[in-house]
């Protein structure tokens, strides 16, 4: 299983970023996919999840209405569109899949929201 995130960077408050996570090594369309984020000294927090075909999504309270998770099963890729970014969104963002109770993570991508 390999998960590779990309798309992070420095953005001003109110700006947008789109994260991507390219997956390989498993049947992508058979699993829910998740995005987490983590700030130093704190636990990883669930940001969003998406079901197999993308019909069901769930968001953390702090990002509802601003972030959109989506997936392209033909490309084995999950996305996180982040809009109206706030300084408190600054974190390392991780892609996650759970397969038979085993959690797999990407290397993470840094998102910094600052003027």
Number of strands: 11
Helix content: under 10%
Strand portion, in percent? over 45%
Supply the helix-strand structural class: mainly beta
Main sheet: strands, sense, barrel: 7 strands, mixed
Q: How far apart are the first and last residues' alpha carbons, in Å? A: 37 Å
Cα-atom radius of gyration: 13 Å
Number of helical runs?
Answer: 0
- In the predicted model, the low-confidence regions spanning at least 5 consecutive residues are none
Order of helices and strands: EEEEEEEEEEE
Quickly describe the structure:
The chain has 115 residues and is mainly beta. The strands form two sheets. Strands 2, 4, 5, 6, 9, 10 and 11 form a seven-stranded mixed β-sheet that branches.
Task: Detail the topology: elements first, then pairings.
Layout (H helix, E strand, L loop, with lengths): L1 E5 L2 E3 L5 E8 L8 E6 L6 E6 L6 E3 L7 E6 L4 E6 L8 E9 L2 E4 L3 E5 L2
What can you tell me about this protein's structure?
This protein has 115 residues and is mainly beta. Helix content is 0%, strand content 53%. The chain contains no helices and 11 strands. It has strands at 2-6, 9-11, 17-24, 33-38, 45-50, 57-59, 67-72, 77-82, 91-99, 102-105, 109-113. The strands form 2 sheets. Strands 2, 4, 5, 6, 9, 10 and 11 form a 7-stranded mixed beta sheet that branches. Strands 1-3-8-7 form a 4-stranded antiparallel beta sheet, with no helix packed on it. It is globular and about 40 Å long.
């Amino acid at each position: 299983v390999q998960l590779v995130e990309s798309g992070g960077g420095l953005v001003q408050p109110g700006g947008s970023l789109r994260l991507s996570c390219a997956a390989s090594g498993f049947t992508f369309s058979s699993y829910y996919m998740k995005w987490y984020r983590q700030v130093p000294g704190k636990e990883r927090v669930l940001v969003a999840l998406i079901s197999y075909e993308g019909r069901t999504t769930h968001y953390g309270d702090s990002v509802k209405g601003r972030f959109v998770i989506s997936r392209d099963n033909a490309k084995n890729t999950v996305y996180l569109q982040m809009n109206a970014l706030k300084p408190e969104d600054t974190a390392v963002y991780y892609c996650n899949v759970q397969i038979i109770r085993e959690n797999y993570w990407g290397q993470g991508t840094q998102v910094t929201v600052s003027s």
